[in-house]
Amino acid sequence: MTSVRASVFQTPTPDHLESMADVVISVDDAGVISSIAPADQWQSPVDHHLDPSHRLLPGLVDLHIHAPQWPQLGTGLDLPLERWLFDHTFPLESRFADLAFAEMVWADLVPALLRHGTTTAVYYGSIHLAATTALARACLRFGQRAFVGRVAMDHLDGTPGWYRDPSASAAIEASARSIAEIRALGSELVQPIVTPRFIPACSDATLAGLGALADTTGTLVQTHCSESDWEHQYVIDRFGFSDTMALDRFGLMRPNSVLAHGGLLGDSDFERIVERQAGIAHCPLSNAYFGDAVFPLRRALDAGVNVGLGTDIAGGPEPSLMRTAAQAVTSSRMLESGVDPRRVRDDRGVADQRIDVVNAFWLATRGGAEVLGLPVGLLEVGRPFDAIAVDVGGVGGRLWDDVDDDARLFEKLIRSTSADRISHTWVAGALVSQRPG
Ligand code: GUN
Ligand code: FE
Fold it and tell me: Which of 19, 288, 334, 389 is the most buried (most CB within 10 A)?
């Protein structure tokens, strides 16, 4: 189907940076990598020969995006979560009853994220069936691998009267129809995902019905989990225990369930997540605004929890998962050192919390893929060719041949890649985004 000659950076494990100099990757008609060979042993012509200043990387897996919030990216974040939802977010999402408006937003969002290197996207849609199916269609049209969820929300206190499902049975029925409509598109690239917005927005009947729906249809689940003090405490007040236990009782803690945020999760929550083979979408930028704390990423990883990264558009103001990966490193360092200079050094932070850029890129690729149970995130024979080409010649200024070894180059790349440095994006072997020039 296609072939690419390039030098590769990737992270097969959380702690290992692999560098492959000048190889040819060939991809079969199914979009799967069929061979990786040193370029000097390759006889045939290649379709794409990347300039030596470029590196080929696995594509990025964004585990948490609110697609209808794209028009408010970067705004309203001075409010706490519960007010931001009612004052900004629900009014905007309610506009997706208008299919033409929805299609205009999707046609802007999906190509933008492909330009940022997001080859797999896990999307919340809105409560609207037509707009949500249109989002799945847009992903297919533009060639992005995606999970697309029609949002269920019916709680009388947690939602406004003008943006909610009219009843639990209506929420469950519309969610079932959304699964059927997305599956009827007939492509493995885009899958449905059961999406109870979060516990405060859902009645018990809706949560239980959606757990059963995920089970009978074999569909993945996404929701928010222990995101902020308010949300975490709300669940404890309503049920007497935390989000993970409540989600588990409703059948929503399933293999590959995506739990967004989790900043306030404790060790017993981590154990439950591991036991159920669910995973966490760590959204460090969003957490800085709404989370009230830094997610204990190192503790989650050490507990064996599957973790990947999410932008949380538009709770996070940044569409790039690469920038989000860099922020995950920064946030982990701030958790470790602490933030209040009036405290003495030993009492200021939490020991041993840091991650490094290699860990962060693994989270953005294989980590996210493992949360979803997908074979992407690594360029290896037998895996789908989801990849991006980055012009490292331009990140952080020029290349310095006698200074920039692979480790330093990779560090620069993680800390300073933006969309204007991503020259190509491939999904399942198809070139889905290319910068002009
Ligand atoms: N909790 C419930 N809905 C949302 C949302 O849209 N964004 C974030 N960050 N948290 C939520
Ligand atoms: Fe979110």
Answer: 389
